[in-house]
Amino acid sequence: MLSIQDLEAGYEDSMVIRSINMNVEENQVICVMGRNGVGKTTLLKTIIGLIQPKNGKIQYKSGDITKDRPSQRARNGSGYVPQGREIFPKLTVLENLQLGLEAGNVKTINEQVYEYFPILKDFAKRNGGDLSGGQQQQLAIARALVSNPSFLLLDEPTEGIQPNIVEEIQAVIMDIKQSSQTSMILVEQNLDFVKNVADHLYVIDHGSIVYSSPIANVEDEEVYRYLTV
């Protein structure tokens, strides 16, 4: 599904991620953990095309997408939920979802998103900025899902979210995993959440992968060694 080979990327003359190698199979959930500032968000932005890599290759569905624009990657089945949600506060919930359709070149909203997050249908005419933080996160995830992506990137979807909505997000990820062929890369700080949803865990430190394990074999102490400040 997705293959990352010797990926290096950063900002101007600063290299943030170095020699990243990663494979994601169809219908697999990969989680990426690490301290703040070690390159997790840079990795996702490079995969989705917001940052052009300085070296390395990204292959998706057997095609080289290393130089593709974000819009091309979206039309090819990639969805992205950025850290901090980044919904459009002055647009209604419905208008935010319709922008997701534009990104994926899809005509109608997948009704499944309303089954996942019923509150969004109730608040369709409400401005995104008037929603709570948890509801905005639901909207951000739904906006990525409306176009039925085959590959989904989620950057810390549980950050600052109340526990009941974290449980809803976990249930959505698990349902997508069980009912579709969608693959996911999830950046997360909550190891318990990761162990509930993931198939494989990578830990990044100083821009490089320092720990890799199938989720069933994860050693908590080893992971926390790279998470504590």
UniProtKB/TrEMBL annotation:
One of its GO terms (molecular function) is ATP binding. InterPro entries: AAA+_ATPase, ABC_transporter-like_ATP-bd, ABC_transptr_urea_ATP-bd_UrtE, BCAA_Transport_ATP-bd_LivF, P-loop_NTPase. Keywords: Amino-acid transport, ATP-binding, Nucleotide-binding, Transport. Transmembrane segments: none annotated. Residues 2-229 form the ABC transporter domain. One of its GO terms (biological process) is L-amino acid transport. It holds the Pfam family ABC_tran. The keyword Cell division does not apply. SUPFAM superfamilies: P-loop containing nucleoside triphosphate hydrolases. SMART domains: AAA. Belongs to the ABC transporter superfamily. This is Urea ABC transporter ATP-binding subunit UrtE. It comes from Gracilibacillus oryzae.
